[in-house]
């Protein structure tokens, strides 16, 4: 699965350079120039890591803001100005940065630091996901409801596993399309909705079953 990076960089040339190389190295990259755009993308795209150029933006991501719902634990690397001293770096860590890289930097070092932070923050894979009467076994790629096996196709299984990883959480459509299909943006695609509809029909085996709940205008959660 490709990790999604949100890159906050006010200089167009630097942002374009980093976007190209990070994509070539296997990341999905969302570039942003201003703070408001960064916060909007942090909420809607749910990136795996954020690269910021301003310490204040790091603080806002960590503390959150009323009415906003981005992941406040998302890893953040600060691309600090030149001549950053020890006091500046300590202040950055206090404001929530996971790492600090001083400008000018070599791209190879940035890439290594991104990968290191992602390794530290990536949770171990849970093989058996249980959500009420539904069980998703990643090891055997088997889905059961009340002990009865359900025949699901490849993407349907991946969708069920993603939803079962946090069954009461609402996953946005952008998140699911990125995590299950590798899409950066949903655009006009109906791929997710059609798969979710088929998966719901397969899982709901009794009149009282409510699985793969559509949260209108947002996305899906596994349990009602």
Task: Walk me through the structure.
The protein has 224 residues and is of the alpha/beta class. The chain has two domains: 4-121, Response regulator (Rossmann fold); 128-223, Arc Repressor Mutant, subunit A (Orthogonal Bundle). It is 40% helix and 22% strand. It has eight helices and twelve strands. The strands form three sheets. A five-stranded parallel sheet has the order 2-1-3-4-5, with helices on both faces. A four-stranded antiparallel sheet has the order 6-7-8-9, with helices on one face. A three-stranded antiparallel sheet has the order 10-12-11. Helix 6 crosses helix 7 (173-181) and helix 6 packs across helix 8 (191-203). The mean pLDDT is 89.
What descriptors fit this protein?
2 domains; 5-stranded parallel beta sheet; 224 residues; 22% strand; Rossmann fold; Arc Repressor Mutant, subunit A; alpha/beta; 40% helix; 4-stranded antiparallel beta sheet; single chain
Give the beta-strand count.
12
CATH class of the largest domain: Alpha Beta
| Unreliable segments of 5+ consecutive residues | none
CATH fold-type name of the largest domain: Rossmann fold
What letter string, H or E per element, gives the SSE order? EHEHEHEHEHEEEEHEHHEE
- Percent helix, as a range, is 25-40%
Please give the CATH architecture of the largest domain. Answer: 3-Layer(aba) Sandwich
Please give a quick description of this structure:
This protein is of the alpha/beta class and 224 residues long.
Record the SSE blueprint:
Layout: E1 4-8, H1 12-24, E2 28-32, H2 35-44, E3 49-52, H3 55-63, E4 76-80, H4 86-94, E5 99-102, H5 107-121, E6 128-131, E7 134-137, E8 142-145, E9 148-150, H6 154-164, E10 171-172, H7 173-181, H8 191-203, E11 211-215, E12 219-223
Parallel strand pairs: 1-2, 1-3, 3-4, 4-5
Antiparallel strand pairs: 6-7, 7-8, 8-9, 10-12, 11-12
Helix pairs in contact: 6-7, 6-8
């Amino acid at each position: 699965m490709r990790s999604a990076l949100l890159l906050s960089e006010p200089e167009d040339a630097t942002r374009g350079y980093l976007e190209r190389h990070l994509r070539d190295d296997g990341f999905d990259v969302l570039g942003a120039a201003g703070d408001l755009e960064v916060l909007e993308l942090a909420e809607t795209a749910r990136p795996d890591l954020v690269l910021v150029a301003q310490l204040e933006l790091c603080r806002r991501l960590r503390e959150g803001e009323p009415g906003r719902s981005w992941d406040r634990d998302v890893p953040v690397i600060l691309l600090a100005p030149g001549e950053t001293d020890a006091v500046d770096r300590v202040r950055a860590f206090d404001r929530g940065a996971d790492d600090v890289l001083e400008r000018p930097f070599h791209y190879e070092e940035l890439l290594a630091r991104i990968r290191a932070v992602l390794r530290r923050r990536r949770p171990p894979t849970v093989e058996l996901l249980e959500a009420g009467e539904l069980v998703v076994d990643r090891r055997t790629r088997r889905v059961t409801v009340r002990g009865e096996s359900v025949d699901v196709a490849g993407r349907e299984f991946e969708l069920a596993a993603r939803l079962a990883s946090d069954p009461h959480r609402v996953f946005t459509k952008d998140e699911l399309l990125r995590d299950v299909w590798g899409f950066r943006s949903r655009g006009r695609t109906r791929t997710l909705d059609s798969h979710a509809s088929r998966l719901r029909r397969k899982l709901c085996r009794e009149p009282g079953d409510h699985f793969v709940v559509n949260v209108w205008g947002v996305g899906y959660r596994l349990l009602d």
